[in-house]
Design goal:
It is built from ten helices and three strands; from the N terminus they run E-E-E-H-H-H-H-H-H-H-H-H-H. By secondary structure, the chain is mostly helical. Helix 2 packs across helix 4, helix 8 crosses helix 10 and helix 9 crosses helix 10.
Length: 202
Amino acid sequence: MYITDIIPLTGKRSKKVRITIDDGSSIVLYSREAGRYGLECDAEITDEVWERLMQEIFIPRARSRAMHLLEKQDRTKAGLRRKLREGGYPDAAVDMAISYVESYHYIDDDRYASSYVRYHQYGKSRRRIVMDLKAKGVSDDIIERAIETEFTTSEEEMIRQTIKKRHYDHETADLKERQRMYRFLLSRGFDYEEIDKALQKG
């Protein structure tokens, strides 16, 4: 593999460079590390140098970064993978870091999905929670299990409570107020028919 570009990263006190490789991927190193391993623009990264980079820098650093990210907040596997890639770690190092934290159960999509459903079910509809978890990269089967075991809230009651909190009165509300409430409830992922019933009853 060959280096096609080396660009200093901007930012306060930044001493890192982004090194672009001819396959389109890139890695991030401190500038002194790039010099130590003889990385220069238009030069080849030999297999031996790449292996040293992986073992001496990328794998240990990706593991450490993964642990630090998980200390700050629980994450899905897909979310952690995305953050590590954004940090300029090669895919192989990312895979090994994720396997490492998984081996200690520091990351667990089943646990994450179950906790998410338990925490958010009083403010979000079932549909909205499913959409959120899918966006976070959780698989359909894990989402289905979490919803089945953890979602115990009545959506009809949730809609009624939401309407009450927003001081909506179906007897005095005009068309504009009704449409506004309808759009708000739709944005929370509630079912059309459930919204209709709730707005008619108040």
